Amino acid sequence: MSDMGGPAGRRQEGGTQTGKAIVVIVVMMVLGWIVLRHGTNNPTAAPPTHGAAAAVTTTTLPTTTTTLVPPSSIKVQVLNGTGSGNLAGQWTSKLKTTAGYDTLAPDDTTSKVTTSAIYVITPGYVPEAYALATAVGLPPSAVNTTVPAPSSAPIPTSERAKADLVLVVGPDLAASA
What we know:
- It contains five helices and six strands, in the order H-E-H-E-E-E-H-E-H-E-H.
- The chain is α/β, with parallel strands linked by helices.
- The longest helix is centred in the N-terminal third of the chain and has 33 residues, at 7-39.
């Protein structure tokens, strides 16, 4: 009387199941290693995170999409920094008619400038300053992000309390007014 269901048969069946489990685990480990190895060479792969305290950081650049204040709600003061001509008046008109900005009466800077700049007067308007730079054809580096604008900026004191942004027109914008 040979009973395959006896202790010897069960031992053999249990050994087979254990062997299969070990093979599955080894295969899964190899596959996991391959995926991880190839995943670190992929520049679009998400960075690895470790533990519950892992944080995701994001960087905001001037080119990111954000909800901006509409131009019609932004008070822009245009100042002529060249010392000659009616550049502030020309740019004031251009910004109002083509871009829809709420422009203030044009004025002159307190001193001549060598290059155009945009100053942020009202806190929170840095993204709008970058949008204004794009609208007038200036690079993002033309935006002075110090809020409020530094006292060394060539902005008349009387104009600082009125505007959200100040565009100082220098020689580089004179030809495109």
